[in-house]
UniProtKB/TrEMBL annotation:
Belongs to the SEC16 family. It is found in: Endoplasmic reticulum. InterPro entries: Sec16_Sec23-bd (IPR024298). One of its GO terms (cellular component) is ER to Golgi transport vesicle membrane. Its main location: endoplasmic reticulum. Pfam families: TPR_Sec16. This is COPII coat assembly protein SEC16. Involved in the initiation of assembly of the COPII coat required for the formation of transport vesicles from the endoplasmic reticulum (ER) and the selection of cargo molecules. Also involved in autophagy. The keyword Transmembrane does not apply. One of its GO terms (biological process) is protein localization to endoplasmic reticulum exit site. It comes from the Eukaryota. It comes from Rhizophagus irregularis.
Length: 206
C-alpha cells in the first residue's frame, strides 16, 4: 500500500519526489504513474542495453524513487547497477545510498540493523564480488557488522566460525592501505578482545 504522503493533494494518483532524466522512459516528471515504476526492470534493461552519458545517475535516481515507495530490494538492485553514482557505506557517510543490502538504514538506524543477519549475508556476497575487481579486500563499514556477528557466533558456541570471521576482518584491515574512519580504536580493540578470547578457548567447538 502506498503511504498517503505519496499521493497528490489534488488527485488520488501517486507521485514521487525525485527526477529521473533518461531518454528511455517517461520517469522525468513529478507525476510518474505507479505503473511506470512497476516496470523498473524493463527500464533498467533498456538503459543498460543503450549506454549513454548519465545513465548511472538515471539508474540511481530510479532507485531513489523505488526506495520512496518502500521497494527496498528493487532500489538496491538499482544502486548495485550504478556503483559510480550510488555509494554503499556507513549510514553516517555523506551521500550514502545504502548500508546493508535489503535493509533501509533510514528506517532501521541502530539496533535493528545490527541483528539483521540476512541483510549482512547478502552484503557479504556483494562485498566478495567487489573484492574480485579491486585490491582493497572489502567494505570498511561492513567489518563492524561482521565483528558483531562473530561475537554472536562465539556466544552461541560456534568458535571456529567466529575465528574465521576474525581472521577475515583482520586481513581486510591490514590490506586496506587507504585507511578508514571505520577502523577506529574501539573497533580494533573489540576485534583484538574477541580474537584473544577465541585463542584462549582453542577456537574449537563450532
Amino acid at each position: 500500500m502506498i503511504p498517503k504522503s505519496h499521493y497528490s493533494p489534488n488527485t488520488n494518483a501517486p507521485y514521487v519526489f525525485s527526477n529521473v532524466t533518461t531518454p528511455y522512459t517517461s520517469l522525468s516528471d513529478h507525476s510518474t504513474p505507479l505503473d511506470s515504476l512497476v516496470k523498473w526492470r524493463e527500464t533498467i534493461a533498456m538503459i543498460l542495453a543503450n549506454r549513454a552519458p548519465g545513465d548511472n545517475q538515471a539508474i540511481s535516481a530510479l532507485g531513489d524513487m523505488l526506495k520512496e515507495y518502500g521497494w527496498i530490494h528493487a532500489s538496491h538492485i538499482c544502486y548495485i547497477l550504478s556503483p559510480n553514482a550510488s555509494l554503499i557505506s556507513g549510514f553516517d557517510a555523506p551521500n550514502v545510498r545504502f548500508t546493508l543490502l535489503g535493509n533501509d538504514y533510514t528506517q532501521n538506524l541502530l539496533i535493528n540493523n545490527f541483528y539483521n543477519w540476512q541483510s549482512l549475508r547478502m552484503t557479504e556476497i556483494y562485498e566478495f564480488g567487489l573484492s574480485l575487481n579491486n585490491s582493497d579486500g572489502g567494505l570498511p563499514h561492513l567489518q563492524a557488522y561482521k565483528l558483531l556477528y562473530a561475537w554472536w557466533l562465539a556466544d552461541c558456541g560456534y568458535l571456529n566460525e567466529a575465528r574465521r570471521y576474525c581472521e577475515s576482518i583482520a586481513n581486510i584491515v591490514k590490506i586496506y592501505t587507504k585507511g578508514s574512519p571505520y577502523f577506529h580504536g574501539c573497533f580494533l580493540q573489540k576485534l583484538k578482545d574477541l580474537t584473544q578470547r577465541l585463542l584462549e578457548h582453542g577456537g574449537g567447538g563450532g
